[in-house]
Every structure is written in C-alpha cells, then in structure tokens.
Known about the structure:
Structural class: mainly alpha
Number of strands: 5
CATH topology of the largest domain: Serine Threonine Protein Phosphatase 5, Tetratricopeptide repeat
Distance between the termini: 80 Å
Number of helices: 15
Mean pLDDT: 78
CATH class of the largest domain: Mainly Alpha
Strand order of the largest sheet: 3-4-5
CATH architecture of the largest domain: Alpha Horseshoe
Oligomer: single chain
Number of domains: 3
Helix content: 55-70%
Largest sheet: 3 strands, antiparallel
Amino acid sequence: MRFSCPDCQTPYHVPDERLREAASPGGVRTKCNVCGVGLIIDVENERVRKDPFPLENKTFRRDFPSVLSMSKGAKKEKDVVAGFFLALMLLLGIGAGYYALTRLETRPFTAAFRTLVDFKDAFSIPRILRDVTGKRPSVPANKEKLSDRRLVRKGYAFYSKERLNLALATFDEAIRLDPKNPEAHYWRGRTLLKMGKEEPAMEAFKEALTLRPDYWEALDNVGWLHLRRGEYGLGLAALNRSIEVNPNNAWAYYNRGFLHAKTGNSKMALKDAQTSCRLGYRKACQMAEKYGKSKETATPSQDG
C-alpha cells in the first residue's frame, strides 16, 4: 500500500502483507517518521488519517517496524545500543590481536610471514627482468631529488627548533643523496655557524656557491665571515656580489656599512646604513643615526 502523511506529505510504501500482519480493529496505528504525527492506516479502505492519541515510539517499534525500514525518504532511526555493542566488540578484537602479537608466542606466524615475503621477492617482476636482461629497472629521475629536498625541509625544521645536531645529520644525509643540492650545503653551513664552527661553515657556503654562483644568501654569510676575520677585501667582494644579485638585500648593505666603517670610509658607511634602513632593516636605522652624528664604528653581529 502506498500513502502519504496527511501532515507533511512524506511518501510511504509498505508491503500489504506487513499491513495485514499488523492489522487490528480500527486500523494500524503508527507514526510518521518525519514529522511525528500519529497515523491510523485503514487497511480495508486504503485510507490514512491522523491519530488523535498517537503511540509512543517504543510501542510503535515493537508492533509495527516496517514503516521505518521501508518508507522512502524517511530518516532511519539509529540503534544506539547495537552501535555501541559493535564498537565495543571491535575494540576488544583489536586489543586481543595486539595482546597476541606482543605477549603470546608468535614465532610460527612470523616464520610463515617471512616465507611468504621471501617467495614474493624471489618471483618479483623487476628482479626477473634484471636477471634476464642484465639491466637494472629504471628509477624515476626525480625520486632522489624529492628525497633530498624532503630532507632539507626536515633539517630546517630541526634548525628552527635549535636541535642542531639532528639538523646537521639531516643535511648531511641530504647531501649524500644529492651532492649537488646547494640548499643542503647552505643550511649545513648555517647549522655549523650556529654551532660555532666557522671554518667548516665557510667551506659549506663556498660549496653552495660553487653549485649556484648567484646564491646571495650564501654570499652574505661568506662576506660576514671574512669581515669577522678582518679579511675586508674578500668580505667586500662577497657583499658587493650579493648586492649585485639582490639589490634589495638590506642585510648585505648593513654589513657592508660596517666594513666601510672599519676601513675608514665613513661616507660609504653612512650611505649603506641609510640604504639598509630604507629597505626595512631596523638595526641599520640605529647605525645610520650613529654614523650621521659621530661617524663611530662598531662590530657587526651575525643574525641574518
């Protein structure tokens, strides 16, 4: 029998045999599953009218469940108890499996699993092709590069958290995978610099510049290290090259200003400090004000 709720017009389709099984004097009493209005289904005359005294849900579910389960478009009730029971059984199964794997004797199962793995490896297609043709299976060209780039990102995360030993080991692994990765060499140098190892840091920066001559961040650090050593000519050359590659490099102007001050060129020192300040480097603004008033010099700090 097909009918609709007199209140919300939700369509229902209930098999006639279900209605006959639940038939009682006065008709089948139930509820609309959408709006909840009480219904009386007159099976003989195939009519539906509102029930002035609607049944409670629990009575309805016991006496006549088919409307809920077979009505098109109606919302199905969730059996909370059954759902909870299923979830509990699943958790118990997972717990039992974990206990069996960790506490019980599982060597026979482990041996069987290893046998299956060995069988799979013995009959792997790449291995058969390699044995027949004498050639190694081709590997995607970017596989190694993706791996070393991922390691550089991981190493930088360690570096940012001051976990320098882990950062250094990660950058070393990235270089092992791809010795021509300039980022790996650069960040290895930055890590060594934070560890106070200036000589190996300088070598790392120079290696990065060998791979990428316009790597201005590496030029900055090379220039700063030469400045700390008092090698002003080499430092000036590195900072000049950095500014040539990146004219908006405020940090390079800042350090070149110190270098000019150390070599007695106060006019250029003030000019570089003002340029660095204009580009947004706050320490350079203080330096420009100081040089503008007294032409004094100071020792730079490495914080780029």
